[in-house]
Design brief:
This protein has one helix and ten strands; from the N terminus they run E-H-E-E-E-E-E-E-E-E-E. It is mainly beta and 205 residues long. It has one domain. Strands 1, 2, 3, 4, 5, 6, 7, 8, 9 and 10 form a ten-stranded antiparallel β-sheet that branches. Strand 4 (91-96) and strand 5 (105-111) form a beta hairpin. The protein is globular.
Length: 205
């Protein structure tokens, strides 16, 4: 039997999740997040960071609603994206560390070039926004978030809330804004970290 596939452009904003088919499903996610039912595993900093890659290949994908919480108590609704095994080609991560004392400062990390991708296991991202041309294999949309079983360890949401999962996900031209990333292992082949200032201080996108 041939694998079923779904294609499309993807963009998340706050509580909106990828390919949610109805407003009712979105409402269920927001309800759970507003009640504080779904929480991040650690306090996040007060700002987001950007991640880009030419291509992401992921075996075992799951998604559900979440909250990124700051130490101050501030809460940020997110789309939690979990991938059991991921490959990222030409990965770029950038953090805006600008301040009045130093001026514009951007920290960048590059890895996974030359056909040797960065790899991660049990990758979990608290996403604020994501863009890219996306293909899913054997996707299940509208599954109870507590029953998700393809996204790796602990990739589950609250019972009764909206979830979705797929056997495989491919994202071309990945661009995302995130509050946090965790992984069981994260191997950054050809790692290059650089502090960029002034005219050279440019983010990944």
């Amino acid at each position: 039997m041939q694998a079923k596939q779904a294609k499309g452009h993807v963009r998340w904003r706050r509580a909106a999740a990828l390919a949610i088919p109805t407003a009712a499903a979105t409402g269920l996610m927001v309800l759970g997040m507003s009640n504080g039912a779904i929480a991040a595993s650690f306090s996040v900093s007060g700002g987001t960071f950007k991640v880009a890659a030419d291509r992401l290949e992921g075996d075992g994908f799951a998604q559900y609603g979440g909250i990124a919480s700051e130490q101050s108590g501030a809460k940020h609704p997110t789309a939690v994206s979990a991938i059991r095994d991921a490959e990222l080609y030409n990965l770029c991560q950038s953090v805006d560390a600008s301040n009045p004392l130093t001026g514009r400062v951007i920290l960048t990390i590059n890895a996974g070039g030359g056909g040797n991708p960065a790899t991660a296991t049990n990758l979990v991202l608290d996403v604020d926004e994501l863009r890219g041309d996306t293909t899913f294999t054997n996707i299940e949309i509208g599954r109870d978030a507590s029953t998700l079983n393809k996204g790796g360890e602990s990739a589950k949401g609250q019972a009764g809330l909206f979830g979705q999962q797929a056997d495989h996900v491919t994202i071309l031209g990945l661009k995302q804004v995130a509050w946090s990333t965790t992984a069981g292992t994260f191997a950054l082949t050809g790692l290059r970290l650089k502090v960029n200032t002034g005219a050279d201080a440019k983010e990944c996108f």
